[in-house]
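Subject line: Sequence and fold of a protein, written as structure tokens
Enclosed: The protein record, placed directly beneath this head.
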Amino acid sequence: MRNHILGSLIRSIITMLIVMTIVFVLLRSGPLDPARYILGDYATAETIKNLREQMKLDRPIYVQYLYFLERLMHGDLGRSFINKQPVLSQLTSVLPYTMELVIAGVILGILMGVPPGIVAALRPNSIFDHLIRLLTLVGISVPIFVSGIFLISIFSLKWDLLPIIGGGASGDLKNRILMLILPAFSCGIWMLASIARLTRASLLEVLKKDYIVTARSKGLRERIVILKHALRNSLLPLITSLGIYINILLGSAVLTEIVFTRPGIGRLIVESIISGDFQMVQILIMLYAGTVVMVNLLVDLTYSLVDPRIAYK
């Protein structure tokens, strides 16, 4: 187990280095000149040249990359090309908003997706099963930004129950929770629909196995058969897909934060791309890539906890 964890960490570090290198090279190899973009079309050649020297964009790309790695190893993420503020300070100011949005979406997806999937699997081809399948199909088909607009129209504009603009004051927990409800449901609708469908399909497959028939023939209670034998063995596909769903949810947070005018990493990366702030963009993309790598690593390590038959050597 220890060797597997160490090997996974090494592979994760190598993956991050590859992603970091690709992002760095692509951002600086494109036709867009950050210095000209920042100064505008009416800037003189001398002004652009001075800014390029100040930003070290006049040096070979490998020199820029080595300089970037050196600063990164010392914990320096650089400064924004636009407002000259440290990237780390801007990142830490919006990161909690994205984290709470993703975590709330995942919790809603699991708590509201697994139970209907279980009930639908236990009553196949019933009215409830058909209803769950129909609702989950709708939940998967509707884009997240459309569901967000729908929630805003009903619960905020029509009924005036929940606020929609911003992320809430940092010191006001009640206000933060109220601001989080609609965005979390906007993200969670797609996730709970996907989890419900997968739970139903996985549990139906497990219920057909011979060991389930044997457990029932021994006279075990149906609750014990379902919870101890069937449900636990149907969790592996769900755990695998949960990692994928979380990664998709991270990308969906971009649209959610824009629709709800909510601060966060997604909104910050869009604003940085529009303003040509390459320094900010590369750090944010690396952060997303690192999160995806860590989620996949945690999912991989969770397998052995759910199913003891899986042993890493």
Observations:
- The two ends are 6 Å apart (CA to CA).
- The domain at 96-278 is CATH 1.10.3720.10 (MetI-like fold).
- The chain has 13 helices and no strands.
- Residues 105 and 188 are 4 Å apart (CA to CA).
